[in-house]
Amino acid sequence: MDERSGRRRPRELAHPELLLSFANVASHPRPSCLLRVNIATQHGEWIDVGLGELLASGVGICADDRYLYHVLVANSDFSTYVSVLDRQSLQVVNVQRLPEIDDGHSVVRLEDELIVVSSGTDQIFAYPLDGFELGPSRILWSPTDSGRDTHHVNSLTNVDGELICSAFGPKENDSWASAESGYVYNVTTGQLVLDGLRQPHSVTWHGEELFFCNSREGTVNTREAVVAYLYGYSRGLSFGPDGVMYVGTSVSRRPVQAADDAVVFLNPGDTGDLHGQCAVIQMNEMGTNRLEMAMAPFGNEIYDIFVL
Fold first, then answer.
1. Is 12 exposed, middle or buried (0-12, 13-18, 19+ CB in 10 A)?
2. Which of 63, 61, 86 is nearest to 71 (CA)?
3. What CATH number does the domain located at 17-307 have?
4. Ramachandran quadrant class, 90 (left: phi over 0; alpha: psi -120 to 50; beta: rest)
5. pLDDT tens-place string over residues 138-151
């Protein structure tokens, strides 16, 4: 409390370390897409993921009490792997190929299973865990049973034991820019949570509220409102133990045709001029008191954020 004014001072934001995954680096493949970042010093260090070959993407990150799980895509044949690291030391304890996964995306621990999205086949797979090893998979859910990427299912979160996912929904032509019916879906109950979204990503449960990135609009949303407008394709969302929010933005594309929206950030894989920036934005739950850190030296597309 400010003694002179009687007003409550804004809570100072902490500066923890983050793990960031960088997607779609196939034009400049690298042995790791997992970056450890100290927000206070703005120093980044690449973390060994144990695959021993160059990568095209680093995607989902999640953890339990002992291990951290990171999904990655090899550059040689675009096979999906999961790298399991000791949560404290970040040393690799296991690397396992997931042959049933095509274009792996997000990952979450749900009870005794690890849940992984296969965006290329519109499927969510569940793997029983035996220590740090994954057992035989089973298909947990698919919106279409098409075996193809028709809804672009992508992110996952655990809400009190229930599995929630996000997806772009169907597209009208070959471009995901035509997908106007993105949704958030409760896989456990079979209920639609939200629809009419625009390329949603990064569903995250925090403080009894569901947050997500409405990526094409460059926003962070709850079920009821827009929390923040950002300059870039919003993707990657996490909260620290103190409630501080961390959101990623990626370099995106401008629409080839003029859009009705004042600002549109198309998927980086679409056509159009480059637009937006790659950055991590630290802010409070109301989207204010922001601290922004440019990530351009490390990559153009952030997929996931994990607070260490």
1. exposed
2. 61
3. 2.120.10.30
4. left
5. 999 999 989 999 99
